Amino acid sequence: MNGTTSNTRPDTSRYATHLNVLFPPLACVGVPAPVTACKDAWYNQTLCQVNNSVVRLGVMQAEYRWHKHDNADEFFFVLEGEFLIDLRDRTVTLGPREPGDLQLDHSHVGMVRIGKARSRSR
């Protein structure tokens, strides 16, 4: 987990969402530190803001709950691992360095099949 070997599994009841913006415009966005510090099954941290959107880092180690976004699309970019997005009628699988776009108002749940996926979402 998080780049180290450990026999402990993350607490699957913990879903940490941090909406504070960590980096101002034109700053170097450092991803390794929040990833290494992650102890949650599902961790979301807003990294920066671009126009009216935010860029978030997500570290997923478990299944999330069913949900939908009424007012925003969602974009995922997997850095490592395999990330599955279950929709009502199908499952979309994203692998390392693969992006995926989910249009607003689609009920979905995200989960990790292999290892730990790191993605960005809005």
Task: Describe the fold and architecture.
The protein is mainly β. The chain has a single domain (11-121), classed as Jelly Rolls, CATH 2.60.120.10. Helices cover 5% and strands 47% of the residues. It has 1 helix and 9 strands; from the N terminus they run βαββββββββ. It has one helix at residues 32-37, and strands spanning 11-18, 40-50, 53-60, 74-77, 82-87, 91-94, 99-102, 108-114, 117-121. Strands 1-2-3-9 form a 4-stranded mixed β-sheet, with no helix packed on it. A 3-stranded antiparallel β-sheet has the order 6-5-8, with no helix packed on it. Strands 4-7 form a two-stranded antiparallel sheet. Mean pLDDT is 77; it is low at 1-10 and 115-122.
In a nutshell, what does this entry contain?
The protein has about 120 residues and is mainly β. Helices cover about 5% and strands about 45% of the residues.
Task: Looking at this protein, list some descriptive labels.
single chain; mainly beta; Jelly Rolls; three-stranded antiparallel beta sheet; disordered N terminus
Question: How do the helices and strands line up, and which of them pair or pack?
Answer:
Layout: E1 11-18, H1 32-37, E2 40-50, E3 53-60, E4 74-77, E5 82-87, E6 91-94, E7 99-102, E8 108-114, E9 117-121
Parallel strand pairs: 1-2
Antiparallel strand pairs: 2-3, 3-9, 4-7, 5-6, 5-8
